[in-house]
Design goal:
Blueprint (H helix, E strand, L loop, with lengths): L4 H16 L7 H8 L3 H13 L3 E4 L5 E4 L8 H7 L33 H23 L2 H5 L12 H4 L10
Helix pairs in contact: 1-2, 1-3
């Protein structure tokens, strides 16, 4: 996995939105100023984040962007997937010889590497990918926001952790 600046900026901007929204939309100009990320670049990222259903836009005076769901329902994987980040470290392991190596069959076709070492390495990185995806899928914006010094976010409760579940009234 090679996390690009696109993925890092997207997570940073989403955390900024989470920590500074106070239930109100946040303007991209404010995020741009606080995070020193180009406004033009943020506009591109937030277009993808909106398409990925992790933010919603609010038009008009006082408009901006807001989380589309609770901060505890938006995983880091959701954010990275929304902006098109590759989070699979084994995606490009195909068994093709490295550049500069002329490995051809007698018929002139490229040789595919299929050694024990190649297969062990590929399996290792596939397993690493599973662990990474699980970690990204189980870490939410809320988890990260609560780690911020002086964060004014509340821990998830049974009532807001599962919005489809209702609690019975107390007698």
């Amino acid at each position: 996995m090679r996390l690009t600046s696109k993925g890092r900026y997207a997570v940073r901007a989403m955390l900024d939105l989470t920590l500074h929204s106070s239930g109100n939309p946040v303007r991209l100009q404010e995020i741009s100023k606080r995070q020193s990320i180009s406004l033009h670049y943020l506009e591109q990222l937030f277009r993808k984040l909106r398409t990925g259903s992790v933010v919603k836009s609010v038009r008009g005076p006082g408009g901006g962007y807001a989380l589309s769901r609770s901060m505890d329902e938006i995983s880091i994987k959701d954010v990275l997937n929304s902006v098109g980040e590759n989070i699979n470290p084994a995606r490009d392991i195909l068994g093709i010889p490295s550049s500069g190596v002329d490995a051809k069959t007698a018929e002139g076709a490229d040789i595919v590497v299929d050694t024990n070492e190649f297969n062990l390495t590929k399996s290792y990185f596939e397993n690493l990918g599973v662990i990474m995806v699980e970690y990204l899928a189980t870490t939410t914006l809320g988890d990260l926001a609560r780690k911020a010094p002086n964060a004014k976010v509340t821990p998830p409760t049974a009532a807001n952790a599962n919005p489809t579940q209702t609690q019975a009234p107390h007698p």
